[in-house]
Amino acid sequence: MTIKERIETLKGWKFGIAGGGVFALAYWVFMESSLPPLANCSYLASPGTDFLAVFGACLCIWRGRTHDDLVVSGFGACVVVIHALQFLVGKTGLF
Predict the structure, then answer these.
(1) Helix ranges (DSSP H) in the chain
(2) Which residue of 5, 6, 21, 90 is 20 to 30 Å from 39, comparing CA positions?
C-alpha cells in the first residue's frame, strides 16, 4: 500500500476528535511538567487569540466531519483542548 493510499484510508472524524483530544492532553501534561512551578508562561496569549484559535479549530472539526477526515478533525480537537487548557489554567486560575 502506497502512502497516498494510506492517507486516503484515514477516515473517521470521531476517532480524530478523540485522538486529537488525548494527544493534546498528553502534550499539555508533558509541557507543563517541564516548566518550573512559578514560571512566567509567555505562551499564554490574549483571550482574543484564544478565541480566534478555537474558532478556527471548530471550523477544522466541522470540515473534518463534513469530509469524514480523521486528520483535520484531530488537528481541530488538539487546538481546542490546548487553548481551553491555556485559558482555564492560565487565565482563570481554576486549577
Answers:
(1) 3-8, 13-33, 47-66, 70-85
(2) 21
CB atoms within 10 A of CB 73: 28
Rounded CA gap, 47 and 10, in Å? Answer: 33
| Prediction pTM value | 0.78
In angstroms, rounded to a whole number, what is the distance separating the alpha carbons of residues 69 and 9?
9
Helix (H, G, I), strand (E, B) or coil at 69: strand
Q: Are 86 and 29 in contact (CB under 8 A)?
A: no
CA 14 → CA 3, 4, 17, 55, distances in Å? 22, 22, 5, 19
Q: Is the pLDDT of residue 66 over 80?
A: yes
